[in-house]
Each structure stands twice: as C-alpha cells, then as structure tokens.
Amino acid sequence: MIERLQKIISAAGITSRRAAEEMILAGRITVNGQVVTELGSKADPAKDLIALDGQPVKPAETFYYVLLHKPAGYVTSLKDPQGRQLVTELVKDIGERLFPVGRLDYNSEGLLLLTNDGAWANRLMHPRHQVDKEYHVRVRGKIDPQQIKKLADGVELEDGPTGATTVRLLKNDQSNDWLSVTIREGRNRQVRRMCAAVGLFVVRLRRIRYGNLTLGGLQPGEYRLLSKEEAQALDGPPPVKQREQRTTASPKVPQPPTPTKRPPRRKIIGQ
C-alpha cells in the first residue's frame, strides 16, 4: 500500500513521524536508491526499497513500551551534535531501536516514555491527545499566592495562552519553594516558560506522572517495560487494522533480558 514516507518510517519503529520528516528534509532517506527530500513523497513498503542512511527500513516485529526515569544531563533525542549523553543509551540493553515519546529538557528529569511503536507514539503526541502530566518544580525564593493563581488561570506565552493548569504549593524551604504543576499540553519547555512568565526561576524540574503512570520506585537511570494493558490505557486500544499490517499475531511484550549491574546507575526491566 502506498503511504507517505514519514508514516512508513515511523511505523517501522525507527523514530516519531515528526523526526522522520526531519530525516527526509536532511536527505537521509532513499527510495530505490534515489534520495528523497520532499515531505509529500510516497512509497509502497511492500515493493520499494526504502533506506535510512543506507540501511533498509523494515517493519518492527515486536513492540516495546518503556517507562524511564530520565536523569538530568541527558538529551531526549536520537543524536546530539554536541556529543551529550542520549536517553536511548539508558535502554540500549533492550536490544531494540527505541525513540522518546515527546521530550524532557536536558536539565529536567523524571518520567519519560520510549517505544518503537510509531503509531502509538504519534497518537500520544498528537495535540488532540490531552493527558495529565504532573511536574514537581523547585523555584528560587519564596512563592507569592498571586503567582500560583496566575499560573492556574493561564499565562500568555509567545506561542499563545496556556490551557487548564492545576497548581498547588508542595512545601516551603528556607530559600526555595516546591510546586506541583499539572498540564495537559505538551509545548516545548512549557512549565519553565510558564514559571518565568510570572517571575519564578526554576531550579529543578521533575515529571512525576504521565496519565495514570508514575515513577513508582524507579531511581534516575532506571526503567521498566510497560505491559500491553498499561500502554493501551494511555490512548485506548490500538487500531486493529494497523496492527494486522505489521504482524500476524497480536503484539506481545516480551520477557526482558536479565538486568546487568552497571554502576553508577541501575536498570529495572519488566514489572
């Protein structure tokens, strides 16, 4: 079946559809040996030879859904021109090519999802898919109640006003206060920009919840595989037709490999 290239690449579990578009524009995709750089280009994965950086693009056989406690100091990307550490390095012992669902800033930490299921990732990242994302935010100095009210009511950012926000004071310290901020949007650096808009400087930011998923007891650098039920609960059951095109059986979450001790961080796989 003829489809857009970015959809084929995403469905193969290589990266998200948005990142696939960047690959196309960068000239990294070829179809039958010819470089393709137009986003509207289409191909038939059953007949055409599609390659990324010279490597054939093949459909994923098994889907993985991973919940990672991202430490600060890691880039939520597949590559980094500056040579910084990538979040995918923390899950490389799974043995599959995974990519992040959405982003967390380099200096931010907390709950991050990774997968090789492009369709699932695209549904979660679509603007229509609004799910609660809760952050614990440490700010410099003391917080005024009016600042909390302004955040909850919505602030004007350069890309438009913010939507529904739940804000509450978690605790007071001598020099820093902690807030809980829950949003449903997923704009770039949104919580940091919201705080800046009301005069608050973020010292530390940690995402502790995504929908009904929490970090649980995971420490920074640890991860676990989500069950099929947990993955489906985030966006509803996946389209049957789409799954049938990729595999002859319902996708199963495999038993993960035995975790290896690799100081200074530990890895926890599975439930």
Give the topology.
Layout: E1 3-4, H1 5-11, H2 17-25, E2 29-31, E3 34-35, E4 42-43, E5 50-52, E6 55-56, E7 65-70, E8 99-101, E9 109-115, H3 118-125, E10 133-140, H4 145-153, E11 156-157, E12 160-161, E13 165-172, E14 176-183, H5 190-197, E15 202-210, E16 213-214, E17 223-225, H6 228-235, H7 240-246
Parallel strand pairs: 9-15
Antiparallel strand pairs: 1-4, 2-3, 2-5, 5-6, 7-9, 7-17, 8-9, 10-14, 10-15, 11-12, 13-14, 15-16
Helix pairs in contact: 1-2
Features:
nine-stranded mixed sheet, four-stranded antiparallel sheet
Mean pLDDT: 84
| Distance between the first and last residues' Cα | 37 Å
Number of DSSP helical runs: 7
Q: Main sheet, how many strands, which sense, barrel?
A: 9 strands, mixed
SS class: alpha+beta
Poorly predicted runs:
237-254, 257-269
Q: What is the share of helical residues?
A: 10-25%
Shape: elongated
* Computed CA radius of gyration, to the nearest angstrom: 20 Å
Order of helices and strands: EHHEEEEEEEEHEHEEEEHEEEHH
Total strand count, please?
Answer: 17
Q: Per DSSP, what share of the residues sits in E-state strands of 2 or more residues? A: 25-35%
